[in-house]
Amino acid sequence: MGARPALSSCCLRWLGLLACVLLLGACSRADVFHHEAFVFGTRVDVAVYTDDQAAADKAAQAVLREFDRLHRAYHAWEPSELTALNAAIARGEAATVSDELAALLKDAQRIAATSDELFDPALGALVALWGFHADTFVPLRPDPARLQALLDARPRMADLVIDGNRVESRNPAVQLDFGGYAKGYALDRAAVILKQQGVDNALVNIGGNVLALGKKGDQPWRIGIQHPREPAPLAAMPLYDGEAVGTSGDYQRYFMLDGQRYAHLLDPRTGQPAHGTQSMTVLVTPGVGARNLDNEGTGTLSDAASKPAYLAGEGWREQTRRFGIEHALRIAEDGRVEVTRALRARLQFIGSVEPRVVD
């Protein structure tokens, strides 16, 4: 056989250019870039879908910095703007707060009123009395006399008088704790920051409170709903642009005493940890209770609205209706699974779960 003809320099240049194009195409393929941290007492994950890892890193780091700021600004027992306000209230004094805190307090008042005060961040003293103002919990019931005195004082968000940046309370027993609110607000702040950074597709997860932006490639984001008694998801579902999911459960912050589970979700009517529900999940779609047309507010509402529904027990559906929420799932204390018709249409249950569908 004759010798194979040599490639011309022109052909070599063309092949080299083709190789570079193919290589660049492979390098620019979109992927999900995860950034994790531990904030708000839980694991946080910011997942960005993009073909630009540097941009994803920059945006996620901006989000995590904001989470750290919020954690420090509104911590319920370490020195913060919130504890400074609590100290002023306890002294019977007015305080001047930031624009952001004033807005948060007004919004929390609105949510508390809608829930008939089952959601009530004014109960920080009750949370502390049960020992939940700590990273680890001592299995101990509070002193009955102190508990009754706090119930008699009846602190509530309606006691606050907010005039611009000036805040005071008609009731010195009010002590604010944003534990049932801050994670949702942080989700909304994350959405704003990601959009400002040019990120259109992301999934932000703060300890099971999740908000979606855009989608993952040509598919929606998919999330799992944690089973409260098993180390596995109960169900999976798609999450679309601007939607947020919030779950309240008795399986993360709790202690066991004499065979009884005492979770951090406290009923303001009794002063006791609520029983009757293992977990309550709500899905908030854009426009449902949101504060503006940019979807800001779905995260906050998903976090806050899951609390009164959890505390309401068998009356959970009435509470979700108050907020216009049609997508909700409850796991009762005895393991029964109840789900609204709208959410059932989305869910893919894992295993042999037979939920009761409610309207």
Report what the structure shows.
The protein has 359 residues and is an alpha+beta fold. 34% of the residues lie in helices and 25% in strands. The protein is built from ten helices and 17 strands. A nine-stranded mixed β-sheet has the order 1-2-6-7-10-13-14-15-17. A hairpin with a 2-residue loop joins β1 (31-39) and β2 (42-50). α2 packs antiparallel against α7 and α8 packs antiparallel against α9 (316-322). The longest helix has 21 residues, at 53-73. The radius of gyration is 24 Å and the shape is globular.
Topology:
Elements: H1 9-27, E1 31-39, E2 42-50, H2 53-73, H3 81-90, E3 95-96, H4 99-114, H5 124-129, H6 144-153, E4 160-163, E5 166-169, H7 182-196, E6 202-206, E7 209-213, E8 221-226, E9 233-239, E10 244-249, E11 254-257, E12 260-263, E13 277-284, H8 298-311, H9 316-322, E14 327-332, E15 337-340, H10 341-344, E16 348-349, E17 356-358
Parallel strand pairs: 15-17
Antiparallel strand pairs: 1-2, 2-6, 3-5, 4-5, 6-7, 7-10, 8-9, 9-16, 10-13, 11-12, 13-14, 14-15
H-E string = HEEHHEHHHEEHEEEEEEEEHHEEHEE
The major pleated sheet works out as:
9 strands, mixed
Estimated structural class:
alpha+beta
What average pLDDT do the residues reach?
91
Radius of gyration: 24 Å
Number of strands: 17
Helix content: 25-40%
Taken from the alpha-carbon principal axes, the silhouette is globular
Strand order in the largest sheet:
1-2-6-7-10-13-14-15-17
β-sheet strand percentage? 15-25%
Helix count from the secondary structure assignment:
10
Question: In terms of per-residue confidence, which ranges show pLDDT below 50 for 5 or more consecutive residues?
Answer: 1-27, 292-296
- The N- to C-terminal Cα distance equals 81 Å
